[in-house]
Structures are given as structure tokens and as C-alpha cells.
Amino acid sequence: MENPYAIEMLNITKRFPGIVANDNITLQLRKGEIHALLGENGAGKSTLMSVLFGLYQPEEGVIKKDGKEVSIKNPNDATALGIGMVHQHFKLVECFTVLDNIILGMEPTKNGFLQKAEARKKIVALSERYGLHVDPDARIEDVTVGMQQRTEILKMLYRDNEILIFDEPTAVLTPQEIDELMQIMRNLAAEGKSILFISHKLAEIMAVADRCTVLRKGKYIGTVDTKDTTVEALSAMMVGRDVKFHVDKEDKTPGDVILKIENMTVASRMHHNNAVKNVSLEVRAGEIVCIAGIDGNGQTEFVYGLAGLEPLVSGKITLCGKDITKASIRSRSVSGISHIPEDRHKHGLVLDYTLEDNIVLQRYFEPEFTKAGFLRRKNIRSYAEKLIDQYDVRSGQGPVTVARSMSGGNQQKAIVAREIDRDPQLLIAVQPTRGLDVGAIEYIHRQIVAQRDAGKAVLLVSLEMDEVMDVSDRILVMYEGEIVGELDPRTATAEEMGLYMAGAKRKEQ
Amino acid sequence: MEKKRASLLRNPGVQTLLSSLLCILLGLVIGYIALLIINPAGAWGAITAIVKNFWNYGRTNLQLRYLGNTLVKTAPLLMCSLSVLFAYKVGLFNIGAAGQYVAGAGAALYFALALKMPWWVCMIAAILAGAVLGCISGALKSFCNVNEVISCIMLNWIALYTVNSLLNPVKNPTSPYTMGLTSVNPEAVMPSLGIEKLFTNNRYTTLAIPLAIVIAVLIWVLLSKTKLGYELKATGLNKHAAKYAGMREKTNIILTMAIAGGLAGLGAAMMYLTGFEEWSVTQSSVPAMGFNGIAAAFLGGLHPIGAIFSSFFIQHITNGGGYVDMTMYSSDISDFISSMIIYLCGFVLFFRQFMSSRLARRDEARKGGKQ
Ligand SMILES: Nc1ncnc2c1ncn2[C@@H]1O[C@H](COP(=O)(O)OP(=O)(O)OP(=O)(O)O)[C@@H](O)[C@H]1O
Ligand SMILES: [Mg+2]
């Protein structure tokens, strides 16, 4: 009888300092199936996949391909075996074009000269066949995360990989892009490719995966057929308790205006038009205002302008009655703005700093943490321990863990903890739950609502339809740099919001 | 026992130390091979002469006196290596330490010989001159995004020729060298504070030696314990995050280069304000001190305290080169051998990496064996 498994990972154990990331885990991937991997932040999903891709060597266990034991010492071995991986945090060369990134490491050459035309043909053919739209000549730094991801997928296909690993591919995508990606994955599976797919979004797993393996704290919990299970059952299996998917919050009458933005215009880095055009809005104490919209419609630049990372072309920003249009980033933050940034690796963390040093990144200069120019290490440590405990930030070595070695979700939790705990007047939260597991999302949403209940203003920027509908008190839809509509989440429908987001509808001026 | 040794090997500090020692050994072996090729008869004698340096003298008081000479030049080298490593920690490669050192030398000597200032004024002038040069590179980097390596290299040459012409008026009428410090302005010589007594009245051993060590410790404290160090390192590791956190990342880059420049400038003061050497206004190459600082920084594991030892070692063999038998080898041989060793010193990080990957692989093998 033919072996039904494309890949078998048997009894894999991988330890890191202070933690067993994978504890005797077995995962069997059938040929042509989409197999989801589910688990809390830090459960060991990325680690397991990195073992398969040759980035880590397991202490124990064997890997079999088509029934034969193989040894995968590095990613080149993995590529030779037809294993490809799209990482949780993409690994592309920013200043290279899409095409260059795809062929990197596999450049077709003739007499030592690059033969790009050939590669281009193959890439264009692949991208048409699978509906992966990319601009081969655009530079990575200029394209959306969606296109970056399609580039990563093309990279795998270009190498004729048979086993495709997707580590949280949907965390950074818009709902439309997610739908497209799911279709692409189905097509690939239909062609006989076997797919491993990590996601925290249970609905996606139910929609696209055939089977699902659940990990918890490094241990194997079980494998289920998605057609025999429910979202609730999966989440209980993964967290070990029932999770509430909806946020309970009481109606509240907003108080004074905390943030007032008048006619804000911000230039774009990508093109000559302005990214944010003449936006005016107000956020009051005790309300959560959400900026919804499809990614790339000026939300990023809007937040940069508000936080002081980009200068305004024109407009005025007032915080608690104080004009902060020209204020420095530091003085904005000291006067009460907290900012959970969109890109946790670019802005949110100094990856080579320890967790505790990252936790005080916005406060290190306060008298509690600095005295006469010297850091007060003891206070930093105890403050970090407090937040780690409170927000359940999991890592190998606690406060002294290097941030780079932490799981993506736990990095995010650390940032959220840092920003919320500053007790700001205004909390700007950009995709605050990106990459978090359902349990953590529940917790963070409760914290955000608690901020609002404590009379703070919250400005939430999210691409996540559910989050927008669930958490916010008021929704502003941004389209091509303008606020095109205001909706009440209690009465608005997803369809209506979709129309605004697509630019098909706008409020009467 | 076995276990304990293995975990000791995994300690990053121990790994750095071992790879530094390995580099030294390899440098000596390669130097020895080169000597063998040139003239096998004198090779062993030459290499031992280099390693022995002041121990080539039999009598203790002579040994001490020549140890003093090594120390006199260790102090400026240490400053240059601190300059390089400080900038490196902030993500900048200060190849301009050489030029900043030159600027410091120019300022120190000009203030001493032309303006007849006391030593401490000359020293401050040297620090400032180095800092200004560093500032220029920093500002170019911050505001115009000019790579600091490029601007530093160009400034090295600009500094050299500027200093040559600046010091031309105070040169000795009969030689290309600047006038003797002790004869023209004894006030400008750094005080010895009795240190010379320790080194058999070597009058060049001055305050500079302990001062250099104190500064190394200060740099270590600055980098690891202070708010400024936290900010600077954050800027070096991720300038976007630094900006996001409200640090003035542009100012920080300039400040870093200014401090790095100041350190190199101070190094020059420690050299030229002892009267140990004069400046040749016809020299057409940038003094090696600043470049050797790069090697010393890496050999010291990019740690300020490590730099103390690595600077001493590098100066030790550089001076030791002077004891090679010149009847057997050409006079450039000493420089050749010491630069060979110094060159190898740059490989510390490489060896360290190699060591940890080998350890990982050995674990694999051992685990395989057990099964
Ligand atoms: N290179 C590393 N060095 C040390 N510890 C590591 C390293 N990589 C991962 N870990 C630790 O192993 C554990 C599992 O991490 P992993 O990235 O596999 O989690 P994950 O399941 O992918 O979580 P997430 O959903 O947050 O991405 C974490 O506690 C993490 O701190
Ligand atoms: Mg992960």
C-alpha cells in the first residue's frame, strides 16, 4: 500500500533556554491536504515548522518524507526535498524587486550572467495560473504586505515545492486578500501540493483546512477533522477553557473631546498624491472610535501623522485642548498618547533588546526608571515582571529573554501591555490583536474596553471586520485618504460597511 | 564535569575570550610561517623576540622601562579602540577614528607649540578637534544619509593634510618633525604624578595611562548602565523603534560620532602630549593608530574592558617587532608581522560564530550516538 503521508514529523522535541518549545509532537501531513496547526501564542507552532524547514535541529524525533527518514540540516536541504515556507515575519530583501526576491538563491545564469527574462516568463506564468498578482519590477519596500506575501508564495512555487508551509499568512492580510489566499491554497491542494497552515483565525481553519492539529504549551493535544468539529470546540481544545468571542460592554455617553483633528493632510511616501486628505475627526473621552478601511487607504500615514512619525502637510491636531501639531514624538507621548504600532518589528520593538528593556521603551526616562542618568535596573525588572504576569507574556527566560526569540504573538502582547499600562489619555491601537490567539484577543479587547470605561479616548485602526464591529462605539471608514462614512456598529451591517470601504458609497457632504 | 565544561564553552563571554586567544595564536603561527619563508634561520628567534618585547632585556629595571614604552602607546590605542567600539555599539562603523586621532594630534600640538598652552588645555583642544570631525560624519549620516564609512575615509585624508599644514609653522627647522615638547613648552607635557618611578624613570609614562583605563571603565558604565547608553544602543539596533519611542535618533547619531571622535582625539593627546613622538609634517599616510583601534576593538570582544587587554597586546607585539634581528630581515618585517597578527585579530567574531555552530553540531552527533 502506498504511504498516504507526504511528511511525517514523529515525536519531535525542541528545547530552548528555559522552555521546551516542542515536547514530543507528532504531525502527519497527508498528500494533497490542507492541514492547519493551531495553538496559543508561544505554543510552538513556528518552532515546529522551522524544524521542518531546517532552521532548527530538534533534540529528539525523526522526520519522514514519503515514508523515508530524512535529515534536514538547513533550509537548502528543505528546498531540495521540496519543502517551502512563508514565514510569520516575511524574509524579503527590502531594496530588491519582487522578481529579484523570487529568484534569489536560484538565479538562472548562463556563463555567469543572469538570465532574468527566462525567470520572468516562469514567474508571470505562475502568477497567472494561481491568481497571484504581483508587479515583478516593484521594489519590496514599496508594495503592500499582501503583495509581499504573494511574492513569498511565488518564491515557493518557483522552486517547485511540493510541501508548502504558511506561518500565519492571514494575520497581515485584508479580508479580501484572505479570501483570495484561501482560494489559492485550495487550488494548490487540488493540484496535489500538501499544505501546512498556521492561523489563529478559527473561521479560516474551518473554511479551508481538512484537518487540524492542536498544540498547547509545546505539547500535542490532538488532531481533528474540521468537518467533525466546531469553532468553539477547537478553541476550547487550544486554550483549555471556553472562550468568549464577543466583547461585553455597556453603553456609555462619551465625555469631553480628547483628540481633535482638523483638516489633516499627510504626504505619501509611495506616490505624489497625499496619502491622507483633509481628514477631520474627534475622539471623546470614554469612546472607542475605529478607523476601518481596506489596507493602504491612508490609515498608516494617518497614524504616523498623528503620532508625529511623519510631518503634516497641513492641518491641526489638538490633544486635551493643547495644540500638538508641531510637538515632538516624545512630547506627544508624554502628554498622553500611547501608540500600539502597526509594524511590531519596525517600530514596536528593539528586537535585540531584552523583554524588560522593551517594556520600558516608552518610559525609561521617567524618574521611576532613571535616576541621575543611571537606569534603575531593579525597578525596571519588577515593573517588567508585573506586566509579564498581568498580560501573560510567555517566553523562555522572562524579563531577560531577548525579544527576537519570542513568539510573534507574545511580542505583540508585550507591546500592548507596555502601551496600555502607560494609562494614556489617548490610546492609538493599530491592529492591536494582530497575530494573537483567541484567548489573548479576548483579554486585549477587555483591556481596551476598560480604558474606555476609565474615561480614556481610544482610536482603533483595524482591518478586522469582527473587531471593528465588536469593540468600537463609532466607526469611521477611510477610503483613499478620506473619511467617507460614519457608522454606528449597533445598526450598521457588514455589507454597508463593505460598500463604504470599497468606495462605492460615501456620506453626503 | 564534562557537562560543566560544555556549558562553560557555551557562555558567550568565554567564547569571545577563546576566539580572541585563537586569533592571537593563529596570527603568531602565520607570522612565523611568513618568517620561515623569508629566512628560515632567524624565524624562531624573530617570533620569540616579538612576543617577548620588553622581556628581551634581562634586567628588571630595563624590562620595566620598556614595558613603560609599550604602555605609553597602549593608552592612545585604547582610546582609538574605545572610539571604534563605542560607535559600533550604536550601529556605526567609525573608520574615522584614524582621522579624528590626527585632528586631535594637530590640535594638541598646535595648542602646545604655537599657543604655548598648558597640557590640560591642549588635551581639551584635542578632544574637541576629534569630536568636531566625528560630528561632521555624524551630521552627514543623519541629515544627508551619507554612509559614515565613506565620509570618515575622506575626512581621514582631509584631516591629515590640514594638520600637516597647520603644524608646518611649528616644525623643527632642520627636520620634518615638530619641535620637541619638553624644550619648547614643558608645561604642555602631561604630568607624570610619580608614575615614572614605577617604570625606572621612564619619563614618558604619565597620567595618560591610568586615565585611559578610567575612561574605558567609564565607557563601559555609560553603555551598560545609563539612560544615554540605553538610548544610543536602541538607536543603533533599530532606529525606527528609537524614533517611535521619541528618542532623537538623528541627534543620537551625531552625539555618538562626537563622543567617538572625542575619544580618538583624546588618544592623540595621550600620545603627543607625552613627548614620546613628534609629528612629521611631511607624512603622507594616516597614522595606523586609529586603524589598529579597529582591530583592538574586535580582539577585545567589543567590550570596553576587553579593549584594555587587547590594546595592550597589540601594542605589545607592535613594539616587540622592534626587536627582530634586522640583519636577517628587512626593516619592514616588524610592521609586517605585527600587522599580520592584527589583521587576524579582526576575525574574532568569525571564530566565535564558528565555535558555536561547531558546538551545536557536536551535540547533534553525540545525541545520534546515544540512540
Ligand atoms: N530562537 C529561539 N530562542 C529561544 N527561544 C525561542 C526561540 N524561538 C522560539 N522560542 C520560544 O519557544 C516558544 C515557542 O515559540 P513559537 O514561535 O514556536 O510560538 P508560536 O506557536 O509560533 O506562537 P505565535 O502564535 O505567537 O507565533 C516561545 O516561548 C518562544 O519564546
Ligand atoms: Mg509563530
Can I get a quick summary?
The complex is a heterodimer of chains A (509) and B (371). Chain A has 509 residues and is α/β, with parallel strands linked by helices.
Give the helix level of chain A as a range of percent. Answer: 25-40%
Structural class of chain A: alpha/beta
User: Which word captures the global form of chain A?
Assistant: globular
CATH class of chain B: Mainly Alpha
Helix content of chain B: over 70%
> What is the third-level CATH name, the topology of the largest domain in chain A?
Rossmann fold
Kindly give the count of domains of chain B: 1
Mean pLDDT of chain A equals 89
- What name goes with the CATH superfamily of the largest domain in chain A? P-loop containing nucleotide triphosphate hydrolases
Distance between termini of chain A? Answer: 70 Å
CATH architecture of chain B: Orthogonal Bundle
Protein described:
The complex is a heterodimer of chains A (509) and B (371). By secondary structure, chain A is α/β, with parallel strands linked by helices. In chain A, the strands form six sheets. A six-stranded mixed beta sheet of chain A has the order 6-9-10-3-11-12, with helices on both faces. In chain A, strands 18-21-22-15-23-24 form a six-stranded mixed beta sheet, sandwiched between helices. Chain A has a four-stranded antiparallel beta sheet with strand order 2-1-4-5, covered by helices on one side. The N and C termini of chain A lie far apart (70 Å). Chain B has one domain: ABC transporter involved in vitamin B12 uptake, BtuC (Orthogonal Bundle). Chain B has helices at 2-10, 12-38, 43-52, 60-89, 97-114, 119-144, 148-167, 181-184, 195-198, 208-225, 227-237, 239-244, 249-272, 289-299, 304-320, 333-345, 348-370. The model of chain B has no long low-confidence stretch (mean pLDDT 86). The A-B interface holds A 57, 59-60, 307, 309, 328-334, 339, 341, 346-353, 357, 361-362, 364-365, 370, 373-375, 377 and B 225-228, 230-231, 233-234, 237-238, 240-248, 360, 364, 367. The site of adenosine-5'-triphosphate has 21 residues of chain A, from strand 2, helix 1 and helix 14.
